[in-house]
Amino acid sequence: MLEIIDYGGGNLGSMTRCLERLDIPYKRVGGSGRSSVSAQPSGNYPLLFPGVGAFGAAMQHLHDRALTDRIRGLVNDGVPYLGVCIGLQVLFESSEEAPDVPGLGLLPGVIKHYRRGKVPQIGWNALKEGPIKLNSALTTNDPLNKASTEENLATLSPLEAKRQALRVFVAQQGESATAYFVNSYYPVPDAPELTLFTADYYGDFCAAAQLIDSQRNITAFQFHPEKSGPFGHQLIQEWMTHVV
Amino acid sequence: MLCKRIIPCLDVANGRTVKGVNFEHLRDMGDPVAMALAYQNQGADELVFLDITASVEDRGTTIQLVQRVARELMIPFTVGGGIRTVDDAYRLLEAGADKVSVNTAAVTNPQLMTDIATAFGNQCCVLAIDARQMAVNATHSSTTPNDHRWAVLTHGGRKVAELDALSWAQQAVTLGAGEILLTSWDKDGTRSGFDIALTQTLATQLSVPVIASGGAHNAQSFVDVFTDGCADAALAASLFHDGDTTVQLLKQTLAAEGIAVRL
What residue ranges define each of the domains in chain B, with the CATH number in brackets? Predict the structure, then answer.
């Protein structure tokens, strides 16, 4: 079970249909006041914040629903969080899209506007390993054998297994680890270890961010896994299975 | 590196995929959902559904089709045809389309693009342009390379608008179009390759992606439109429907030619 944040402006439907295809049950929370979706996040389930939209509007929505402190509190208490697109961007401290609006500040860094190429970036881009290299011992043992992945992850500490799970999965997908992006802005984390995957759009940028420590369990994608074919769907499943 | 996109296009009417000549003598090509999933499995990067349903009453069928496609498809898709108001766009996006494309209605009422972009973001507002090469003095434009001029056609090609394709596209981008679906009326249906000069003119001068359409013949057509034409994506219909090639085979050829595609 997941709780999915119903930010009024986002295309929630594409994410809920994706969860339905994956047979992952969900509840809508934090919505626009209609009775079925007005509940606050409970903290009993992982939080998923999906959707396209503008940074300023998304933060305004969170403020209007008293969600900023609620989300900060839950994430700092260790409730697993998965952000997609705008759900990634609000984690950071600020965005060039709305310079006067502070973000949630759960990850140190800022959101910047692409200065080269066509904007928005629209289309499929290959995910690459971030600055923290994958322990090669985790994939050398028959990389296509899922059982061996689980065995390998089982040799790690629980925290380290969560940190490595998506890296191992993406490494094993090879060229199939290509995801659908629709974005004009991209994250620039303050610390290199926050970058889970990069992609190349006139230079490498942070395509996914992660912070997993003894207190927090944050994962966020700039791309749209719900629109990224079987690969994207499996990625969400991997997150549910190995990171949550 | 961002991949070049291959986009099969399905004409739909009354909930079925159809094929016809100039929208007449429509032949039933099958269930759009089944075809969409087959293209997804071949490696299509996106799909476009063009609703050529004649009557307004039958548009409810299209909404139901969009809902069915959205439930099953795991890649993005655009729906175009007959979108005249922001409410029309809303109904399609609410049903699960990722983007809507507007054509004639945007010429009549350019504000429509701004309204769609303001409400839903410019990433889901696609302007479709049907462009036809004209004698140099036939339109009001000033300078484009090699004296190429392209007029904008509306109403399924039946009317010529007093617009130059490049200027119109540039205006559309400032109004809120996040992508241009550019069809060459001269090339469409000819199987003689994409219009490289037209595509290049727009693709190199616009700040948003350009999808080339019309004239796809073989893998070389795509190589040409991605390299010389600078297209960000390329669309074809009958080439794929007739089984002359598959998206997968096409992409393998493109990859061998050094073009970035998603395999």
Answer: 5-256 (3.20.20.70)
